[in-house]
Design brief:
Helix content is 1%, strand content 34%. The chain folds into 2 domains: 29-372 and 415-570, Methanol Dehydrogenase, Chain A, CATH 2.140.10; 594-696, Immunoglobulin-like, CATH 2.60.40.420. A hairpin with a 5-residue loop joins strand 17 (277-282) and strand 18 (288-293). With 697 residues, it is mainly β. The strands form 13 sheets. A 6-stranded mixed beta sheet has the order 39-42-48-47-44-45, with no helix packed on it. Strands 1-32-33-34-35 form a 5-stranded mixed beta sheet, with no helix packed on it. Strands 2-38-37-36 form a 4-stranded antiparallel beta sheet, with no helix packed on it. The protein has 1 helix and 48 strands.
Length: 697
């Protein structure tokens, strides 16, 4: 049935719509004339086309000759200056256009790797990729809250937009999309969110749609339960929308509610539209068409912010124009992109309720389930559960997706706000008809006492997978576990020869068989890859390009940084980069390493220093042990002490090997001798946030 405000998704399963006619695909990808023409000699947009399919119809690099794929050039686009990169390059007429970690825009010859021009930003900001208009001869970026148009041939500023009204929020760390002399620009300042339509010839604001309705009488305003204006915050649409010119719609994904804290829903009763929603707007007027909210009354930072993907799919013998939306929740919501109905069925299922949180009693769930597990596995002390990537750190209360929390010990649930999938770009292959995503296995613990979006428990493993889902059934076709989380910028490219490319946080660029996930090729780029690979063609030769820059999520400073733009083709001979130090896969503890000898090989529980005065205020924090990180040699005996001045019993529970589990009253101690090298994490039953590590060398 049609999704609308009155039902507000209490029921979101829909009847099959009438068959629709499908226009013939346009001839040139760079024209961006329709939603779904695949990349060819060009890759003119982040996402490849207006449907965000990240698919190239090039096939010269295939599953047989990929063993001969080699690098042909490397450009250090900022002269070796690194930073946090979240930007994917695009290609028009053989020229690569890239926003760097410094927010500068670089034009690079796709054949030689030579820099053609550089536009220097007046201020550094995290960026997510330029938009390009071949017809207007302009490259678009965002800087200091304005749209900047750059001459495509010279890199000279053509114009700068007027300042946008403060009421629409700030633009900066957001995506920008071009189509037919219009720009679709999101906002991301944490308070006000709006999807903007901007005139691409002069930067003038044409329309805006607010992720959180601003005034009484606005559509969705009453879904905030009378919350004061300062609690009506968030709903920021900061990733690339999809555009369907045939249906005349643009599709925005809106982020979570940020009223005070995303973990506290008590002051904003209701479903909180249009946070955690996909909203279809008329692409010429900006008028509302339909919406689907994937998480009602979010209090877990589980907004599904990925760029939505458009696809034409045969469902039960009928061709359907669908949009695939998801998914931190680890579920794909497959909707008819004409009206928002659910051709495969999405049901409102009961979930646990906490009235203090004003939590919503039901949540939408696709009838086919998710592509990752939705509950943590409790580890028995003494060893890991075989194959369980969603393992739970001990001593936390645990719950499945949508378990409520309040102000006690944080509730550990899965998937956390860092995956399933976060803002990585997924790919729809027009060859295999499968949808591919990177995923993260990174649980999160929630309570009112956490920061803005919950706690990733110290000591947990942060791994991932590449997953193929059939959008005609919403069922997993295959899944390949990977050693790193692939949920933050690790986009996927598929090609007509059924090769899949993805980059890892350890710097490895990887090629896989798109039909089964078998690895076919890898190359060390020298820095973490947090962007999508792209493909293009020059003089009849197919190229693959990766930008290896690195970003902080979820591995922080341990993810190797760089400014390495690589291009590959069959027969390339350039050697790989030196292998960098790989990211720390387990969530680090607080604090720098301390020699065991300097503290008498003793860990004080419930303390952040040797001072007794620190006990009462730090025993429930992540640094509520002293030291949190101790380095000792093999054969060292370590003493764990709960000081006599403590007011509580404290524990040292070692995980996941289960070497010890001490429960110590005030004044008690226990010892353990470490006989093997390794990293051994332990936490406290009094409050599991407090976590330590013994590093044995």
């Amino acid at each position: 049935m049609r999704l609308n405000l009155l039902t507000a998704l209490l029921v979101s399963a829909g009847a099959l719509a009438a068959p629709v006619a499908f226009a013939a695909p346009h001839a040139a990808a760079a024209d961006l004339a329709d939603c779904c023409t695949p990349g060819d000699k060009d890759f003119p947009k982040v996402g490849g086309n207006l449907g965000n399919q990240n698919y190239s119809k090039l096939r010269n690099i295939n599953r047989v000759n990929i063993k001969n794929l080699g690098a042909v050039w490397l450009n250090h686009v900022e002269g070796g200056v690194a930073g946090d990169n979240q930007s994917t390059p695009v290609v028009v007429d053989g020229v690569i256009f890239l926003e760097t970690a410094q927010a500068n825009v670089i034009a690079v010859d796709g054949k030689t790797g030579a820099t053609k021009w550089k536009w220097t930003a007046p201020a550094r900001a995290t960026r997510r990729g330029v938009a390009v208009s071949k017809e207007l001869g302009l490259v678009y970026t965002l800087s200091q809250g304005k749209v900047v148009a750059i001459d495509i041939n010279t890199g000279v500023t053509a114009w700068v937009s007027p300042a946008f009204p403060a009421s629409v929020g700030g633009i900066g760390k957001v995506a920008i999309v071009y189509h037919n002399k219009r720009l679709y620009v999101g906002t991301n300042d944490g308070s006000v969110g709006a999807g903007l339509m901007v005139d691409a010839t002069n930067g003038v604001l044409m329309s805006s749609f607010f992720g959180v309705p601003q005034n009484p009488g606005d559509l969705g305003y009453d879904t905030w339960g009378g919350a004061p204006q300062d609690q009506r915050r968030g709903g920021t649409p900061w990733i690339h929308p999809a555009v369907d010119p045939e249906l005349n719609m643009v599709y925005w994904t809106f982020g979570n509610n940020r009223g005070g804290s995303s973990q506290n829903g008590s002051t904003r009763p209701g479903q909180n539209l249009f946070a955690n929603s996909i909203v279809a707007l008329d692409m010429t007027t900006g008028a509302y068409k339909w919406h689907f909210q994937s998480v009602h009354h979010d209090m877990w930072d589980m907004d599904n912010v990925n760029g939505p993907v458009l696809a034409d799919v045969n469902i039960r013998g009928q061709m359907r124009k669908v949009i695939v939306y998801g998914s931190k929740t680890g579920m794909f919501y497959i909707l008819d992109r004409q009206d928002g109905s659910a051709p495969l069925g999405i049901d409102e299922v009961p979930v646990p309720v906490d009235t203090r949180q004003a939590s919503w009693p039901t949540q939408p769930r696709p009838r086919q389930g998710g592509f990752v597990e939705s509950c943590p596995v409790t580890e028995p002390l003494g060893g890991p559960v075989p194959g369980a990537q969603n393992r739970a750190v001990p001593n936390y209360p645990t719950g499945c997706l949508y378990s409520p929390h309040w102000d006690g010990a944080p509730v550990l649930s899965f998937p956390g706000h860092g995956g399933g999938a976060d803002w990585n770009h997924y790919s729809f292959s027009q060859s295999t008809k499968l949808l591919y995503t990177g995923a993260g296995y990174v649980g999160a613990a929630h309570s009112l006492n956490e920061g803005s979006n919950g706690l990733r428990p110290p000591g947990e493993y942060m791994t991932g997978a590449v997953i193929a889902v059939d959008p005609a059934t919403n069922l997993v076709r295959w899944k390949k576990p990977m050693p790193y989380s692939l949920a933050h910028g690790n986009g996927i490219l598929t090609t007509a020869s059924d090769v899949l490319f993805i980059g890892q946080p350890d710097g490895n660029a990887i090629g896989m068989d798109a039909t089964n996930g078998r690895e076919l090729w890898r190359f060390q780029t020298g820095a973490a890859i947090s962007a999508s690979p792209i493909s293009y063609e020059i003089d009849g030769e197919q190229y693959i390009a990766f930008y290896a820059g690195g970003t902080g999520i979820p591995y922080g400073a341990s993810a190797p940084r760089g400014d390495n733009l690589w291009a590959f083709k069959i027969g390339g001979k350039l050697p790989p980069a030196a292998t960098p130090t790989p990211p720390t896969v387990r969530r680090p503890v607080s604090g720098s390493p301390v020699s065991g000898a300097s503290v008498g090989n003793t860990v004080l529980l419930g303390r952040s220093s040797a001072s007794a005065a620190e006990q009462s205020i730090n025993s429930g924090s992540t640094n509520g042990m002293y030291p949190t990180h101790m380095q000792v040699g093999v054969g060292t005996t370590v003493t764990f002490t709960n000081p006599g001045s403590s007011a509580n019993t404290h524990c040292a529970t070692q995980f996941f090997e289960g070497l010890f589990n001490f429960s110590l009253a005030p004044g008690q101690s226990a010892t353990y001798t470490f006989t093997q090298p390794g990293e051994f994490f332990f936490n406290d039953c009094h409050n599991p946030r407090s976590t330590g590590k013994i590093e044995v060398k």
